[in-house]
Amino acid sequence: MDMPESSPKSIETPWARSPEDVLSDLDVSSADGLQDHAAEARHGRYGPNRLKKAQSRAAGAILLDQLKNLIILLLSLAAMASFIFDQYLEAAAILVAIVLNVAIGFFTEWRATRSMEALQHLGRVDARVRRGGRIRAIPSEELVPGDIVLLEGGDMVAADLRILQASRLAMDESALTGESVPVDKQVDPVDADAATADQRSMLFKGTAVTRGSAEGVVVAVGMDTELGRIASLAEASGGEETPLEKRLDRLGYRLIWLTLAIAALVTVAGVLARKDLLLMIETAIALAVAAAPEGLPMVATIGLARGMWRMLKRNALMNRLSAVETLGSTSVIFTDKTGTLTENRMTVTRILLAGDTPNSTTTIRVDPDAGDVFRNNGNAVAPSENGTLQAALETGVLCNNADLDHDAGDHDDNGVGDPLEIALLHAGRLAGMQRDDLLTARPEVREEAFDRDVKMMATFHEEAAGWRVAVKGAPEAVIAASHRLGQPDNGREFGPEERRHWHDLSADLAAEGLRVLAVAAKRADHKEAAPYENLNFLGLIAMADPPRRDVPEAVAACGRAGIDVVMVTGDHPATAGKVAALTGIAAQDVPQVIAGKDLKGPQELSEEERRTYLQNRVFARVSPEQKLNLIRLHQADGAVVAMTGDGVNDAPALKKADIGIAMGRRGTQVAREAADMVLQDDAFGTIVAAVAQGRSIFENIRKFIFFLLSGNVGEILIVGIAILAGSPLPLLPLQILYLNMIGDVFPALALAAGDGDAARMREPPRDAGEAILTRDHWMGIGAYGAVIAATVLAAFWLALHTLALPLERAVTVSFLSLSFARLWHVFNMRSAASPWIDNEITRNPYVWGALALCTALLLMAVYLPGLSQVLKLVGPDPVEWSLILGLSLFPLAVGQTALTVLSGRKSAAAKH
User: Fold this and answer.
1) Which domains does the chain have, with CATH numbers?
2) Distance, CA of 339 to CA of 345 (rounded, Å)
3) pLDDT per residue over 224-276, tens digit each?
4) Of 298, 357, 339, 273, which Cα lies nearest the Cα of 106?
5) How far apart are CA 777 and CA 766, in angstroms?
6) Quick check: helix, strand or coil at residue 326?
7) What's the pLDDT band for 594 if we cut at 50, 70, 90?
8) Sign of dihedral through CA atoms 98, 99, 105, 110?
9) Selected catalytic residue, list 25, 147, 160, 336
């Protein structure tokens, strides 16, 4: 169909017009929706349905940040001083150092920034639309004016819609209007001059369905929506700075001022020792530059960004950069059951129907792969010949909002909608029932959407003799609402004894780990009848959702890592207990399960009850408020809590948790927006992999800082001791600058890019408030710095006095000894528990690449004409190379010995 001359942009006040008028102007039928060619044409005309992106960080802004660096200011002062004292060669060399520092910082931060921005394109949000008479899920960016959109509780509205149909519909419009409570919506038009908050016949982009269901037609997309108009008035917000980056910045600036003070002392000491003033100023500035960790923020950004990409490869999409570092401190994981611990591939396996006599039951087993799909006591059963079975299956198909492809097979991933409802449609298809055919014979005239309080859903269908009401829901709710047992036409009284019987059957099925639904039906005289009164109970439908195969090992990995896994689910306690036992969350075969009805509020808890709640691992039939209370309880106990969720009601708990984790496949858009991390495969194992990555990121950054500072302390000690001893300087200013550029940046980046030590997942989580560098780390930095300094000073002394080398050659020996000692020192960054040959450092290909590159640059420094003259270095002979390489390995040997001793002490302590 072609676009009318009147475009959706020209539809004025759609909230004040009837649905029929709006559909007419949009040239679309609500029953069929747009045809594909019409949707494609409109997409070309109106563009993608998205808001204008916030302006990405420009290259110029990144470059300016590099120039504003305090280190660059220090280098610039050194260059100015060199010019003033007519040291033009040194000035030119320092300018080269400035260019290289800026270039390296700019390139690495630009790459990290672009990587972070690219992640924003990966979180695709889908919308359910009717096109060509079929319901399908499409990316929300492909919505166009005239699309018919279907919404249910938990969905986020992706465009501005005029409501066509609504059932008990309420919306959260707080993000748009500031209204703090859900707003009831309606189909009827409102006044043309109604304010946005009063346009009850409209649904707006960015708002969420908190209750009920709806069908609407798109009247505006992208920047033409109400949210788009508001967004056009707002400026893009600034980038997020994580707590780790803030701590790194504070550490960096403190170290800068500390090194400036040290540099000043070195200058004063040199002057008092009657050394050249310009040389001492340049040396002091070079030392300050060498000691200051100018790469901290850059490496942190790169490490966090690489971690996000690694997590994405494991199907964990991070919404917030700050969540990456917090993951490493996670000590408790609150997990839902369905879809996270289980496959979320529901299949109807049993149908229990009322027998002909009181307390008798007919059990129908369902096997889609068998020749006879429906069997009772080994005998085939034809649904068309069993009225109650036929009625139960029809009720499951009619009371349903899912949709199957016409060509779909017998697997639930061929449908769109709730997996439980898709399973019911598949069961109906196995009995020869197609939902479209049933709706043609019995058109749906009314729907009572599923209500979490009522725990039931109902649909009304027109028949020749009145209306048929189909109901499904939680067994306890449906049993309580039922008056008779069996089909509406020939049912019998549903007495107290039989009610207990069916309650027991439901509990038995749940104890087997099955998901259980009850179905009921009745006939009504009018379509406005109360849906949940005087029902005829038809039976129970049991569905299997087995645990994921990888969950037991993932739970065991959490145990080894000191992370407690707690199941918090809305399911039946018996079902929760069974799955907890199968997955290893609870060690007992019949674990203790605390039901929501037995949970007390935080103010009512005794100390013993508080400890019980903290130690328990399975909670069932838990409300959203109770989830919040459990999270607060663990956080008050010092835990860092990660929590999974998929529904609208999970959003508060997702925000309250230290790490909110939403389901990417079955989770609602509201949950995904509220979460810090989205599991694209809904798998629990992905959470564990993300936690491991979070730990690795923090450890990599810590290793980089440790490596950097221990080398820098060594440089300060070398020059400082030489000045105090009245000795010639073992290192010249330009040499320090050159070594700083190659010896700090490349190995540090290699450490930040490593995969980390797998042994970290066999240790308890670190304290969230733990400093980047602890007291032990500072002691290690000082010790390694002293060893490196002693090594270089020994090489310098031997070169001067034992080999009787000229000063220039002796300085070359000390320069290369320091350079290679710092390169080999990178292998001391391994974990004490890891082997000294096969470990996370030796397995890191970036480390070997950095060593090769730095070695080549060092050889250029002594053998490349021009550069060697600028740095005042000469090529060593074989004897000098032997001295250089022999002594440069000394810090490595000391470090490996210390790590071996430390590992032995830890092992002995663990045994005791």
Assistant:
1) 8-49+124-231 (2.70.150.10), 244-310+690-761+768-907 (1.20.1110.10), 317-342+548-682 (3.40.50.1000), 347-544 (3.40.1110.10)
2) 8
3) 888 777 666 543 333 445 556 567 667 767 776 776 787 788 778 888 877 77
4) 298
5) 15
6) helix
7) very high
8) positive
9) 336
Query: Measured on CA atoms in the order 732, 733, 736, 738, is the torsion positive or negative?
Result: negative
Q: Which of 891, 741, 876, 709 is nearest to 818 (CA)?
A: 891
What CA–CA distance (Å, rounded) separates 92 from 82?
9
Structure-derived torsion over alpha carbons of residues 403, 408, 412, 418, reported in degrees to the nearest 10: -10
**Secondary structure class of 457 (helix, strand, coil):** strand
Nearest to residue 285, comparing CAs of 646, 642, 737, 705?
Answer: 737
Question: CA 639, CA 632: separation in Å to the nearest integer?
Answer: 9
Q: Would you tell me how many other CB atoms lie within 10 Å of the CB of residue 878?
A: 7
What is the DSSP code string of 175-188?
A: HHH---S-EE--SS
Q: Which two tokens stand for residue 206?
A: 């960015």
- Please give the full DSSP string across 830-881, using - where no structure is assigned: S-TTS-SSSSTTTT-HHHHHHHHHHHHHHHHHHHSTTHHHHHT-----HHHH
Encode pLDDT of 4-58 as tens digits: 433 444 578 999 999 999 999 999 999 999 999 999 999 999 999 887 654 556 7
Do residues 895 and 825 lie in contact, with contact meaning Cβ atoms separated by under 8 Å? yes
3-state secondary structure of 384: helix
β partners of residue 678: 317, 662
Question: Of 380, 360, 309, 278, nearest to 120 (Cα)?
Answer: 309
pLDDT in tens, 185-207: 999 999 998 878 789 999 998 88
- Ramachandran assignment for 194, one of left (phi > 0), alpha (psi -120 to 50 degrees), beta (any other): beta
Report the greatest alpha carbon distance in the chain.
Answer: 115
**Is 479:518 a contact under the CB 8 Å cutoff?**
yes
Would you state the structure tokens that stand for residue 330, as one six-digit string?
């996670």
Burial 14-52 (b: 16+ CB within 10 A, else e): bbbbebeebbebbebbbeebbeeebbebbbeebeebbee
- The amino acid at 693: Q
Check: CB of residue 217 under 8 Å from CB of residue 146: yes
Distance of CA 612 to the CA centre of its chain: 30
Instruction: Identify the CA nearest to 519 among candidates 545, 543, 544.
Output: 543
Neighbour tally for 775: CB within 10 Å: 8
Measured distance CA(674)–CA(651) in Å, rounded? 6
Strand runs (DSSP E) across 635-760, as ranges?
641-645, 659-663, 677-679
534: left (phi over 0), alpha (psi -120 to 50) or beta: left
- Phi first, then psi, for residue 221 (nearest 5°) are -130, 160
The answer to whether the pTM exceeds 0.85 is no
Question: DSSP label at 372?
Answer: S
Give the angle 230-645-587 at the CA atoms, nearest 5°: 165
Phi and psi of 470, rounded to 5°?
Answer: -110, 130
Round to whole Å and give the CA distance between 470 and 910. Answer: 62
Q: Is 225 left (phi over 0), alpha (psi -120 to 50) or beta?
A: beta
Query: Token pair 């009921």 is at which residue?
Result: 520
Q: 631-653 as b/e, with b when 16 or more CB fall inside 10 Å?
A: bebbeeeebbbbbbbbbbbbbbb
DSSP 800: I
Active site residue 413: no
To the nearest 5 percent, what fractions of the chain are helix, strand and coil?
Answer: 50, 15, 30
Cα 676 to chain centroid, rounded: 5
Cβ atoms of 285 and 263 closer than 8 Å: yes
Tally the residues of the chain.
Answer: 912
Q: Are 230 and 215 in contact (CB under 8 A)?
A: no
Give the Cα separation of 478 and 473 in Å (integer). 6
